[in-house]
UniProtKB/TrEMBL annotation:
Hydantoinase/oxoprolinase N-terminal domain ranges (all copies): 5-189
Domain Acetophenone carboxylase-like C-terminal positions: 505-665
Record's protein name: Hydantoinase/oxoprolinase family protein
UniProt xrefs under InterPro entries: ACX-like_C, ATPase_NBD, Hydant_A_N, Hydantoinase_A, Oxoprolinase-like
Species whose genome carries this gene: Herbidospora solisilvae
UniProt cross-references to Pfam families, sorted A to Z: Hydant_A_C, Hydant_A_N, Hydantoinase_A
Domain Hydantoinase A/oxoprolinase: start-end pairs: 211-491
Amino acid sequence: MYSVRIGVDTGGTFTDVVLVDERTGQIVTTKTPSTPSNPADGFLAGVAKVLELHGGGVDLASVSALVHGTTVATNQLLEDRPDRSDHLGFITTEGFEFILEIARQSVPDGYGNSYFWVKPPRIVPVHRVKTVPGRLDHTGAEVRPFSEDDATAVARWFRDQGVTAIGVCFLHAYANPAHERLMRDVLAREHPEAVVSVSSDVLREYREYERSVTTLVDAAVKPIMRTYIGNLSERLGRGFSVMKSNGGVLSAAEVVNQPITTVLSGPAAGALGAALIAGTAGRPSVITLDGGGTSTDVAVIVDGEPSQTTEGSIGRYPCKIPMIDIVTVGAGGGSVAWISPEGTLKVGPRSAGADPGPICYGRGGTEVTVTDAHVFLGRVPPHLLGGEIPLDAAAARAGIEGLAAKLGLTPERCATGILEISAFNQSNAIRQITVKRGLDVRDFPMVAFGGSGPLLVCRLLDVLGLKSAIVPPDPGNVSAFGLLTVDVKNDYVRTHVTTDPDPDEIEAVFRDLEAQAAEALTREGFTDHVYVRTADLRYYGQAYEVRVPADGDVEARFHEAHQRLYGYGYRDDPRHAVEWVNLRVSGIGPITRPALARRPEQFEEPTPICTRDVHFDGWARTVIYRRRDLGAGAVVHGPAVIEEYGSTLPVHPGFTATMDDYGNLEVRRELG
């Protein structure tokens, strides 16, 4: 009896697929072009391809688990611009109709930018915001009763206007959801075609503006996610699971009710896959760098666990759902090199995308990209995916020469400059996720993966002063592999503000949240439940909180975390009281993670497959190695290039790449 699990990560350019045969331990990886017009086509093509590569008579019906990482919800926010659509409406408390307009009264990049910044359109225009009388105080006590007559009129107005997605956020609903539930019942009765999101279900946490926008984002992506998930389920003829931003997975049947939880699906899977790979290799704390075609995503893993945040955003929309703390920078293989009005060379954040893509793709692209610079310098082969996608090196050269002429540089200096700027853009993202979080970047090795992730490893080691970098096997498929390493996970939160916590009250809230988690895990078919309690605390008078584990001496943990993050704390100062703000529970249904196989040891010197001209410090004939030919203990001395199906590792002069027992390449500066 086969026990086969498949992970499918749909990206902008390629759909990555990984199959794990739990009976034999075999891992099969592949890629197939993505199909943006209908992502389900690329998904199904990838699954069929990996099953064919595996062989052994396994078909889709015998696959025990199918896990999907998708950017459908994210793309809806970033590309379809829901603020300009006519399907989204908002219902809030009477007198608070301008909450979206007032927002946080803050200007990006400081108030010095006030003269130049133009406020973007809000997610729902003012004419589609309606209010309903009724008021609760911050404890959840009713101040004014809910008006069902007014609620009915509002529901009928949205029905008559054809508004089919509605977000509901009433003042202090985190303390008492009663009025929101009454509004939901009215909408179900008067406007049954509408998709409705209520804030007490999406984010039961205080801060009205963030809770409102998070609820509206959930409502905005629900229709497209339901259509996509429904279409995919019908074509598959079976169930599957979807990766969530918090580092867990959820069944497709459940995720359609909370689609906002999937907005960072792919990057979260990559961070978790890298964490398992690095942990197996004896590196439980690492920086992860996921380099793609459009952007690079970086995260930090500490003791095997990724850092989490609830202060994330998607585009310009704050989304206070629990998610892995990921910083994204527009520095991918498709990032465009351009000349600023001042005449200086810039790279990104604009990308050539998958269509037309870099010049070397031969699909009509006319703008030089990071990939074109790598091709011109000989650091990537003249083809991708083992020859499936040929590259036009002559076109890349012509593009680089044209840009270099405008800058008054040699083509080599222009191409090297493009890569140098891209490396510094990536290093700045890494500093944001480490230095700005109170971490010393030099304490962490880096795991570089994704199709373009390994290409700038050597420069990043120099720029950041890192001791080493790890490039996993099949780096372009680490995100898809990560989908097979994660547990089912749901997060629940309750605002409970106090400077004098009553242990019985705290315990009662935690038990209530755990009961909700248990109900969801039981629906998912889990009998073994794990609960993780955390709490958000702050010093009285502060505006934002620090999250710490809610076991043992919670306030002592807070003092320590605050000291680490901000460089000061008030552990022994009674003038600064500690205020509890939010209580959280993560309900986890654990799975069996795939085991990574060891590589056979290699005693002889590795043998290159060929040579070609590559530019590092200058043009030189350089040895090329095929990664699958290397065994454990093999050492490659730079200058050299190590190629594989989905990615390439240029080893600069003065660096070495050593393969460990699990097939990872560890890149270091040569001693002496």
